[in-house]
User: Fold Class I SAM-dependent methyltransferase from Stutzerimonas kunmingensis.
Amino acid sequence: MPATVVTRLPILRALLAQLLALLVVWLLLLGLVGVLGVRPGLILVAVAQGCLAALIGARLGLSAWWLAINLMFVPGLALLRDFDVPGWLPLGAFTLLLLLNWNAFTERVPLYLTGREAERQLRNRLSELPAGFRYIDLGSGLAGTLSRLARDFPAAQFIGVETAPLTFALSWLRCLPRRNCHIRLLSLWRVDLAEYDVVYCFLSPAPMAALWNKAHAEMRPGALLISNSFAVPGVEPVEVQQLNDWRRSRLLIWYPGGATPDGVDTSG
Assistant:
């Protein structure tokens, strides 16, 4: 597999860290048993492997939540060995996590849910637009906010794009009763942003620079790019709305295509 693919996909870097840690721990065990006659317990070996996997993952540039997974994965399996847990349960739990968080494993975008305060601020901002606006949520998750906004603005069109299979299925069913709300099984990188008046995202720091380049190239003058919490490196937002939530998050707003409604050029 090309090195560029391993670099781009964090799940492959995490797997590489696990395998390297297993190899190092196995070689150390051979040395301890062969030279000193010492046989460490399973839990101690598993914890050592987890710590080493987390350290290697950090060197490979994995984010903090991936390091936690690397740290706990093998020790967790070792602990489950002491309980009467069906063999399919850990695999089923991992599969469910994978189906819900596919973007986190492939594009470093975990499943974040828009809070009610952010939703309220979004509703206020959208109320300032002409009635028939087009809105897209890049990585719409479970589509709770998207569905409620579609209910509140029946003349507008709301689109969500999602690639996590189970998340897509659940959000598609959720939006099915609303004629102005649709969920597409589609990567955000394949969306033509020129079609939309508002582009909303709640992603992670990792894709924001590339998303800005895409938005700057495709979005129309006056169209809004709204990011929940995560900034575009080196590009100051035109508007910042503080949210009084437990995350102390913000809505960051840009006009990547150029002019604001007042005619000010903000394209940079």
